[in-house]
Amino acid sequence: MSATRTTAGARDHARAQGGTVVQAMPTLPASAWAAPPEGVAAADLTWAEVVGGGNYTNKVVARGTTLRLTDLEGDACAHLLVFNADQPWERLNVADTVKVPWQAYLGAGHPLLSDQGRVLATVLADSSGRHDALCGTSSRLRNEQRYGDGEAQGPSPAGRELLLLAALKHGLGPRDVAPSVSFFQGIRVGEDGALAFTGSAGPGGSVTLRAELPLVVLVANVPHPLDPRASYTCSPLEILAWRGAPTAPGDPLWTASPEAERAFLNTADYATARGV
């Protein structure tokens, strides 16, 4: 007889789970994370979580927050969407993100831009080099064709389905889930225009970003849509965030190009006017 067949039994069972620790879960408060990044005080941590393969997470972070994603075992793929937390109709625009810096491949120094000509976040450091700003995330139909299922609660959830769940937690809907960028599973464009999957750089690769505005951050950790493996393969993703300051005038990122300088000026102008 099930211990949860009665209300009292279900309550006792639920309370018995208190204190259970597994690998893929948030650490609350974030300051309790066992190993803060070098030079970062535990009290400055604002987000500490491990996201399992086939799962998602979301968070609102302040302007200036540093966000580090780490591929723990070599098979994570972090599909990322960011929105202006104060005006979420301003969101990541992948076309401008590759067009304005004249670079289709994400890496250190790359700005993530909105369609308002502002920098939402900047890639500060990158030890992986295997990323993608061209393919977007996986769809339910595609996963059904490849794995036999693509729904959010199924055995092989699609990235778009998970990003939509994350978006709904912030009052956003299907039309807000635009094309995303992804980290830790790379692609390259051949001379004939074909896309070649280059996979992972291996365990331990990390990407560090800086929030240039208050952001809603959505992450789905699912296989890349061009991953050729027959099985649904995705390993845990570590996310850490801590307090910091946005990119300031005179920083090499600010003056990297005329286009970058204009985007940072647009961002600073907006932030000053709104007092963020």
How would you describe this protein?
This protein is an alpha+beta fold. The strands form 3 sheets. It has a 6-stranded antiparallel sheet with strand order 1-13-3-11-6-5. It has a 5-stranded antiparallel sheet with strand order 2-12-4-8-7, with helices on one face. It has a two-stranded antiparallel ribbon with strand order 9-10. About 40% of the residues are buried. The protein has 5 helices and 13 strands. The longest helix is centred in the C-terminal third of the chain and has 17 residues. It starts with 6 loop residues before the first helix and ends with a helix. The protein has one domain. The mean pLDDT is about 95.
